[in-house]
Amino acid sequence: MFDNLSDKLDKALHVLKGHGQITEINVAETTKEVRRALLDADVNFKIAKEFTNRVKEKALGQNVLTTLQPGQLMVKIVKDELTELMGGESEGINLSGNPSVILMSGLQGSGKTTFSGKLANFLKTKKSKNPLLVACDVYRPAAIDQLHVVGEQINVPVYSDRENNDPVAIAKAGIAKAKADGNNVVIIDTAGRLAVDEKMMNEISDIHKAINPQETLFVVDSMTGQDAVNTAKAFNDVLNFDGVILTKLDGDTRGGAAISIKSVVNKPIKFIGTGEKMEAIDIFYPSRMADRILG
Ligand code: GDP
């Protein structure tokens, strides 16, 4: 995982370690390598440039040049900066509502339905919650079926209404059902499209306004690289969401999306998806991610 990025950084830092005496020039050379590695990992150009400038400043400010082990200090600086950039400490989910309503947003195929199930399972098994899943995709009957399959797998009830084509009404009815049945968390799975368009944005915005969720999460496929940033920005402009879910980190993906999305929308990445199974969910820890990226 993240082979390309960590290999490149390894190489860059190896170059630095190889120098008995480190000069300002080879700090600059090394940070250039770091920047190239970030760009190769699909990190936005501006973000990669800002990042490496900060690393350079810190390296020179901390007198890397005069330390006995400049390479190690340099690695630490890069790791710390990367960790900070991706969000500092991890943040939880707001479960203060009664019930707590969690709205899922994102493009079709990003992993919303799968993650809705994973989150329900996580909250049920780890936080002793009693969730209800709500299917608000009125365009694809298969999406409703998929949520029912997921619900059965984890033994969590699913509310859907195949006769209704108004997602706002379904979302509201789902919340009312949760109240009636004593479910203290409602996870609302919504319809995505293949690309950002006005209809989808208006619909998710209408649902968001109507139900005023405690938590709005944006789900994004980490394999989509630069596009992930543009999609995140489009959804954030409309929803001002609370957190990001980065899926498919088990695939052949680098860390670029995590870095760029956090920088551009400045919202915490809360969970990661690491597989298709319901258990393949992890809390996002920026420091672990930085370790993974750097190898
Ligand atoms: P939705 O259209 O946003 O609801 O996306 P789905 O939940 O249907 O997911 C789309 C595809 O990605 C499905 O085949 C999922 O099994 C798969 N998927 C979702 N999350 C992950 C993940 O974390 N890792 C992997 N490898 N596949 C995932």
From TrEMBL:
Its main location: cytoplasm. One of its GO terms (molecular function) is 7S RNA binding. Its EC number is 3.6.5.4. Keywords: Cytoplasm, GTP-binding, Hydrolase, Nucleotide-binding, Ribonucleoprotein, RNA-binding, Signal recognition particle. It is an enzyme of class 3 (hydrolase). GO terms for cellular component: signal recognition particle. It is found in: Cytoplasm. One of its GO terms (biological process) is SRP-dependent cotranslational protein targeting to membrane. GTP binds at residues 106-113, 189-193, 247-250. It comes from the Bacteria. Transmembrane segments: none annotated. It catalyses: GTP + H2O = GDP + phosphate + H(+). Involved in targeting and insertion of nascent membrane proteins into the cytoplasmic membrane. Binds to the hydrophobic signal sequence of the ribosome-nascent chain (RNC) as it emerges from the ribosomes. The SRP-RNC complex is then targeted to the cytoplasmic membrane where it interacts with the SRP receptor FtsY. Part of the signal recognition particle protein translocation system, which is composed of SRP and FtsY. Belongs to the GTP-binding SRP family. SRP54 subfamily. Composed of three domains: the N-terminal N domain, which is responsible for interactions with the ribosome, the central G domain, which binds GTP, and the C-terminal M domain, which binds the RNA and the signal sequence of the RNC. This is Signal recognition particle protein. It comes from Maribacter cobaltidurans. The gene is ffh.
